Amino acid sequence: MSHGGEVERYVKDPSLLVELCREVIERLDAGSENGETPAMEAQLREIARAIDKLDKQGVPVPDVLRAEKARLAAALGVSAESAQTLNHLADELEELLKDLNDRIGRTPEAALAKKPRAKRSKSPKTDKTILRQLIVDALRHLGGSAPKNDVLKYMEEKLHGKLLPGDLEWREATNDHAWQNNACWERYVMTRDGTLKAGSPRGIWELSEDHR
User: Fold this and answer.
1) The pTM is what?
2) What would you report as the CA-atom Rg of the chain, rounded to the nearest whole angstrom?
3) Candidates 3.40.50.920, 3.40.109.10, 1.10.10.10, 3.40.50.1860; correct CATH number of 120-212?
4) Rounded to an integer, what distance in angstroms lies between the CA atom of residue 52 and that of residue 66?
5) Looking at residue 4, what is its pLDDT?
6) pLDDT at 84 (0 to 100)
7) Ranges of H-type helices in the chain
8) Rounded Cα gap, residues 108 and 118, in angstroms
9) Per-residue pLDDT tens for 84-100?
10) CB-based burial of residue 105 (10 Å sphere; 0-12 exposed, 13-18 middle, 19+ buried)?
């Protein structure tokens, strides 16, 4: 959450917020844009086959071949991570835009006939530091890495009876509850500060070696 002084800057000049959003999107998009992705994927498949063949034949695999496999896997992982984050951000911004249109009365006529969308309340939500620790606890319990849904299931069990009113708000754009959505955003922050591995396979959350 931003401090009051920071928010005031954007209140006085909302265009700064738009520029900030554009810069964030540009930086994320730079990580997802890779015209060589198909070729890299093909190279990775061929190298993996070669390594597997050598292993089966009992022939030592050259270090340079293993290193190239690791490099390609990491590069493709970063691209997938950025693309996933952009999709998640698009969902959040779409919901924010709907809320903004509602506030200024720009809701399309077709939407007026539908059940009004519940706006996000200011009800208290579980602090991100608690979500962060639960993500670490879940992954350690699950062996260091696990599918996203397994991590959230573990967290839900630990939060049973402790979820705050705001945690249970339903997010239409992302099709989940507020606490789940906030956990996903915290996971993104954790990949940036090194707590979780960046570039893990899509849908897999993984602790970095230093945090296992």
Assistant:
1) 0.55
2) 21
3) 1.10.10.10
4) 11
5) 61
6) 67
7) 4-12, 14-32, 37-57, 63-103, 109-112, 128-141, 148-158, 178-192
8) 16
9) 677 777 877 877 888 78
10) exposed
